[in-house]
Amino acid sequence: MDKISYPVKGSCRCGKLEIALAAPPVLTAACHCRGCQKMSSSAFSLTAMCKSDSFRVVRGTPVKGGVQGPELDHFFCPDCKTWMFTRITGMDDFVNVRPTLFDQKSLATPFIETMTSEKLPWVSIPAQHSFTGFPDVDDFMKLLDDFSQTQDQQGSRRG
Ligand SMILES: [Zn+2]
Ligand SMILES: [Zn+2]
C-alpha cells in the first residue's frame, strides 16, 4: 500500500467543490441499504468516517440534498450535484465523507459493510466485518480500535 501523506485532497465530478482531509479516517465502510443504493445510483455507498476537525471544504459551498434532516443531512456540490458527505445529527465530532472523491484511492477500501440484509445478490466485497444492520455501540467502539490497528500496521510495514 502506498504511503498516505496528509492532507489528502478531493473534489466533486466537476471540480468546483474541493475538500481536504488532514488526518486518517477513524473507520471506512460500505453500506448496502436501499437508501444508499438510490443515492449512489449504484450497488452500495462508500464512507470514510472522519473527525470533523480533520475535514474541511477548501473551495465552494456544499448544498443539502438527499435526506435533509432531522436525523441526518446529505451534502452535494451545487453545480454537478455529486454526493460529497453526510452529517449525522448529534454526532458533530464526525463527518462521513464519500472516499472515492479523494485523490488517494486506498481511502475508499471498506473495512466493514453494513445493511447486508438489503445487499444486491451479486455483490461481494472484501470487507473484514459484515453486519446485517448497523453495528451497535459496543461493536462500533471495537471496530474503531481494530481499524486504527490496521492503520498502524500499514504504517510500520511502510517503514
Ligand atoms: Zn461539482
Ligand atoms: Zn446506507
From TrEMBL:
<dbReference type="InterPro" id="IPR006913">
    <property type="entry name" value="CENP-V/GFA"/>
</dbReference>
<keyword id="KW-0456">Lyase</keyword>
<comment type="similarity">
    <text>Belongs to the Gfa family.</text>
</comment>
<dbReference type="Pfam" id="PF04828">
    <property type="entry name" value="GFA"/>
</dbReference>
<feature type="domain" description="CENP-V/GFA">
    <location>
        <begin position="8"/>
        <end position="123"/>
    </location>
</feature>
<protein>
    <submittedName>
        <fullName>Aldehyde-activating protein</fullName>
    </submittedName>
</protein>
<dbReference type="InterPro" id="IPR011057">
    <property type="entry name" value="Mss4-like_sf"/>
</dbReference>
<keyword id="KW-0479">Metal-binding</keyword>
<keyword id="KW-0862">Zinc</keyword>
